[in-house]
Design goal:
It is built from five helices and five strands, in the order ααββααβββα. The chain is 52% helix and 21% strand. The chain is rod-shaped and about 115 Å long. With 183 residues, the protein is an alpha+beta fold.
């Protein structure tokens, strides 16, 4: 079976649509007013089905707390100003499930000359949970090591005292025996 040249496949509009709609990560594009102008299926899946038709043209911050909106808008502005921003953020979907997303925002100019930001969010929830478990395991390991070190030092300290006592006693006994021999 012969494969189509990669360049021809990549230029296909259908290829890009299939890619963007089936990638697990959230992909979105915002204008300079922070309004969503494009979002893929994974992005829409965060919202209730009845609201998905109203996402395009709306500022994404409208769906979050005021504090979250400030953070999102600040990161958007950073991307517009510097060309790039990256953040790990916690969001919840319409079912109340919480996700940790690592989001990269990249400034670009579209075909009409509009400045946009492309957002790509990867779900890192499992990694964050594993990191927390690893931190807990590290603390437990440190505690175990401290207890083990203490337990090892205690018998050694007792043995050292016993050896010192034995040496002192032996010196006294040998000292008396030697004096007795000399007399």
């Amino acid at each position: 079976m012969q494969k189509a040249p990669l360049a021809a496949v990549m230029q296909s509009k259908n290829f890009h649509e299939v890619l963007l709609e089936n990638i697990r990560g959230l992909v979105f594009v915002k204008d300079q007013d922070y309004r969503i102008v494009y979002a893929n299926k994974a992005f829409f899946d965060l919202y209730p089905p009845e609201e998905r038709g109203n996402i395009i043209g709306r500022a994404s911050a409208e769906n979050f707390t005021e504090e979250q909106a400030k953070v999102f808008n600040a990161e958007d502005q950073k991307a517009f100003n510097t060309g790039f921003a990256e953040i790990v953020e916690e969001i919840s979907d319409y079912k109340g499930r919480t996700y940790m997303l690592q989001t990269q925002k990249i400034r670009f100019i579209d075909e009409q000359g509009n400045i946009r930001i492309l957002g790509i969010s990867t779900d890192v929830t499992r990694l964050v949970e594993r990191e927390k478990l690893l931190a807990i395991s590290n603390v437990a390991l440190e505690n175990f090591a401290a207890v083990a070190a203490h337990d090892l030092r205690s018998p050694l300290a007792a043995l050292s005292v016993s050896l010192d006592l034995s040496a002192t006693t032996a010196q006294r006994v040998w000292g008396r025996a030697r004096r007795a021999m000399l007399n």
